[in-house]
Amino acid sequence: MAGPPGTTRSPEEIGNRIVVVRGEKVLLDGDLAQLYGVTTKRLNEQVKRNRRRFPSDFVFRLKYQDLVGLRSQNATSKGRPGKGGRRYLPLAFTEHGALMAANVLKSDRAIEVSLYVVRAFVRLREALASHKELASKLEQLEQRTAALANRHDALAADTRAQFRQVIAALRQLMSTPEPKRRPIGFVTDTEAKNSKPA
Length: 198
Fold this sequence. Notes:
Elements: H1 11-15, E1 19-21, E2 24-28, H2 29-36, H3 40-49, E3 59-61, H4 64-72, E4 91-93, H5 95-105, H6 108-151, H7 157-174, H8 189-195
Antiparallel strand pairs: 1-2, 2-4, 3-4
């Protein structure tokens, strides 16, 4: 599905910018500002001016340990506050906060892109729900297999081991892939091409 001209093109691409901080799925202020076509400073000013519209479950400021946790996941390359031109730690916007930000910015682009942002959050929720459902069904299957093995000793050890291997393989397929690592710092076109996986 194509997005507005000059913006991120799909909820999947926006979904790649969503990170988990303190158990919440959020977009950092720099990413949200870029999506909405404004500077991070302007976005944060609007949040400050409209503070009553942004309760703590809509937006919160990262702590330094949150940023360290994100860096360890290679989800962001933002520098320490006071270095690289940034005085404060980034703001993190939940789904509702991202939507409210579009409303206070009042630009056509922000309102249009906010629809893609909401769709990205919804798709992440649906994916997590389907993983939980599959995990529950696997658990039930594992319990039934164990009960069957206990009741009917005719089920050979090989067969039980095969069931365990199938369940383990399914669980491995369900695990979320490691996020793509972005290079940190300035990267030339040649270095970027050479660092792409074959």
